[in-house]
């Protein structure tokens, strides 16, 4: 028995704090499994001899000498007051540094998302409509190839071909639209291949449904059946995949940003992990978790709005 969309949204929103609490606990625990002492790393970065006395003094300053549970409670108390702590390395507020770099990562993820929709939807439709043709085989080959290539290797390949050899695009950095093209394609291509195969199989499955046969018997044009019925029904499972994709793009940007020296959250995260900068890593994971959960909530709501069965149930209620 279906529940109303309003009740569904309310339940999902009420579960968000518990999901984020679980993410914060796991992040806080796992990051402290790293055997290297942050105080020692910071002293070496400052070119100070990491003696036992110096390490202990810095641990007291950073607060890492306190019991584990107390450290977590102090941190989560600060998070509830929108205080994410201070970076061990830069001594600046973590939120200030992360939110300064967040727009660059969102820009890259959004550009990749636009490329995914712009390429995968038409290619998936063409591949389904021309099933088993040469066009279908070519599209399927390149989609499988794009999924199989590791992202870091794809990034270096794009740099070598289009920057070093042809000189079409800059090799690194951020500033113009040309700087955005290669990182966005490197981030989007593996997902484009996945979406093309998913859209192809979904449309082929919908074309076998009885309502399509009835529509043909009623004399409806194939284009009308495709646009008004098949694509609408195929979009329902696609929305769930879109929500997970947005979160994976933000997480996958870590590798791409490192390859193209893109000044976003991913590159900053790598530096923070190497420096054992706990507050930065904890805040990063929490921000990505919030974005990921909200994106999935929005796609679940959209899924229900597109599903005619659920919409009819809401109207009856």
UniProtKB/TrEMBL annotation:
Membrane topology: Multi-pass membrane protein
Keyword Transport: yes
Keyword hit for Transmembrane: yes
Compartment(s): Cell membrane
Keywords: Cell membrane, Ion transport, Membrane, Nickel, Nickel transport, Transmembrane, Transmembrane helix, Transport
Highest taxon, organism lineage: Bacteria
InterPro entries named in the record: BPD_transp_1_N (IPR045621), MetI-like (IPR000515), MetI-like_sf (IPR035906), Opp2B (IPR050045)
Membrane-crossing residue ranges in chain numbering: 12-34, 108-130, 142-162, 177-199, 235-256, 284-306
First-listed, main subcellular location of the protein, grouped into a coarse class: membrane
Domain ABC transmembrane type-1: 102-299
Similarity annotation: Belongs to the binding-protein-dependent transport system permease family. OppBC subfamily.
The protein's assembly and partners: The complex is composed of two ATP-binding proteins (NikD and NikE), two transmembrane proteins (NikB and NikC) and a solute-binding protein (NikA).
UniProt protein name: Nickel import system permease protein NikB
Naturally occurring in which organism (per UniProt): Lysinibacillus xylanilyticus
Name of the gene: nikB
């Amino acid at each position: 028995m279906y529940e109303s969309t309003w009740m569904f949204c309310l339940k999902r929103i009420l579960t968000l704090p518990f999901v984020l609490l679980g993410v914060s606990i796991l992040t806080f625990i796992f990051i402290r499994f790293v055997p290297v002492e942050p105080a020692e790393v910071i002293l070496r970065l400052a070119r100070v001899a990491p003696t036992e006395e110096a390490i202990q003094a810095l641990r007291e300053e950073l607060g890492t000498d306190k019991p584990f549970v107390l450290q977590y409670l102090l941190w989560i108390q600060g998070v509830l007051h929108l205080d994410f702590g201070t970076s061990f390395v830069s001594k600046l507020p973590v939120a200030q540094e992360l939110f300064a770099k967040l727009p660059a990562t969102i820009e890259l993820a959004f550009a990749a998302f636009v490329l995914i929709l712009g390429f995968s939807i038409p290619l998936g439709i063409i591949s389904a409509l021309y099933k088993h043709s040469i066009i279908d085989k070519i599209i399927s080959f390149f989609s499988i190839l794009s999924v199989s290539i590791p992202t870091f290797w794809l990034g270096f390949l794009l740099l070598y071909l289009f920057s070093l050899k042809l000189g079409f695009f800059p090799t690194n950095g951020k500033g113009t639209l040309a700087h955005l093209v290669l990182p966005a394609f490197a981030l989007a291509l593996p997902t484009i291949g996945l979406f093309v195969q998913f859209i192809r199989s979904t449309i082929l499955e919908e074309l076998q449904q009885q309502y399509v046969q009835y529509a043909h018997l009623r004399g409806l044009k194939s284009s009308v059946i495709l646009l008004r019925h098949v694509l609408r029904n195929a979009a329902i499972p696609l929305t769930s995949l879109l929500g997970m994709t947005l979160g994976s793009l933000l997480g996958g940007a870590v590798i791409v940003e490192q390859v193209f020296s893109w000044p976003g959250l991913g590159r900053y995260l790598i530096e923070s992990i190497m420096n054992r900068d706990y507050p930065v890593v904890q805040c990063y994971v929490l921000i990505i978790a919030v974005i990921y959960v909200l994106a999935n909530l929005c796609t679940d709501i959209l899924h229900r709005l597109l599903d005619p069965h659920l919409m009819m149930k809401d109207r009856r209620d």
